Amino acid sequence: MGGDVARQRSSATQRWAARLAIVAAVAVVVLPLVVAGFKSLGLAAIVLAGFALSAAGLWWAVSRKGLVRVLAVALAVAAQAAVIGFFVAVGLFWLVIVIAALWAVVCFEGWAALAEDGGQVAPAEYRTAPPERPFFIMNPRSGGGKVGRFGLKEKAEALGAQVVLLDPAHVQDVAALARTALADGADLLGVAGGDGTQALVASVAAEYGIPFMVISAGTRNHFALDLGLDRQDPATCLDALTDGVELRIDLGRIAERTFVNNVSFGAYAEVVQSPAYRDDKIGTILRMLPDVLTHHIGSRLSVQGVGVSIDSPQAVLVSNNPYSTDDPAGLGHRERLDAGVLGVLSIKVDNAAQAAELLRGRHASGLTVATAHEIVVTAEAPEVEVGVDGEALSFPTPVRCVIEPQALRVRVPRHRPGVPRARARLDWRRLRDLALSRG
Length: 439
What we know:
With 439 residues, this protein is an alpha+beta fold. It contains 13 helices and 16 strands. It has helices at 2-36, 39-63, 66-89, 93-113, 146-149, 152-158, 174-183, 195-208, 222-226, 267-272, 281-293, 352-357, 428-436; strands at residues 134-138, 162-165, 188-192, 212-215, 244-254, 257-259, 262-266, 301-305, 308-311, 315-320, 342-347, 367-372, 374-379, 383-388, 391-396, 399-413. The strands form three sheets. A six-stranded antiparallel sheet has the order 6-5-16-13-8-9. Strands 12-11-10-7-14-15 form a six-stranded antiparallel sheet. Strands 2-1-3-4 form a four-stranded parallel sheet, with helices on both faces. Helix 1 runs antiparallel to helix 4 (93-113), helix 1 (2-36) crosses helix 13 and helix 7 packs parallel to helix 8. The longest helix is centred in the first third of the chain and has 35 residues, at 2-36. The relative contact order is 0.14.
């Protein structure tokens, strides 16, 4: 009975949140008409024009050099300043602030009302016996020295694990280390390091069908985030050795190499290949991006798959399962790692008008968001630059990316933070039904 009461309260909260969201949305439309009448349409056009000019200015800023770049930045800033100045001059800047606040209410309450409609499915968990001879590879430099700072080597060894610390002064073949450990009887492979190292060792674990463990000791820990692990205290990941469950997740493969997060083609891949990128990231990006975006350097790409056909995009991201679209970039996290599909995100912008159209978000013609089981990327050159889980590599064309469903057994702590819940899309029909419902 207590559970029914909790669900009723939850439903009541959702209904009132939906009503508030709709009332705020109506106010967003009605308030300008009450204050300015049909002149409000002209005011809206001024706002849209300001955003369009700023978007065009930003496109010229990243795709041009020298004086044109300076003028483009000035245009982007001036457009917004002119819009603000106009509303201040006509005494309606307060209206802009109120509308922005009302729209914030619409979003916040709408997401709250639709929270149960997020559609997120928890991955299946399997109870398995703890490993008897776990083996870990740890990078002492990863994440600014998290291995030493959190005492990961000592804590893992105290739990019966064998640990190999990578030597920062020498390049080591982590896949070979993993294979040697398996030959010596290891029954679990784990990595405390970056996602690139995670992918190499995960590939070996998948090949031999043994469990793999992730310790969130990298810098960004994207893979750990999508597994629901604690990224603040990587030592908690070791709880999986004594009180853990297994997940079955997908792996991506590009040619013969495994990736756990994503591979990128085009602008990002070209820039990170530059020798100067490591020492001067911003300067290298500003110097190279105009030539990459205008196709003066790098090869023109073509992306093909079932239901996917993209010609000459500036940037392509192929991911192991699609990224969530609950944020503007759509790259916050992946809700699932076991859906059995690749995510595909590409951007094609050839002029300022197309750059301004990106304000439409997912509806912009230059933005492609799709899923596929296999993607083939071709280029004019015999070889193309690719960023694989953040590592700069080159592959002969055509490049084939595929998904390998449930290829990897991942052991995680039974108690863990979990994957961040995706925000529900603002579905106005669903909000209306919630607002009119009586329970």
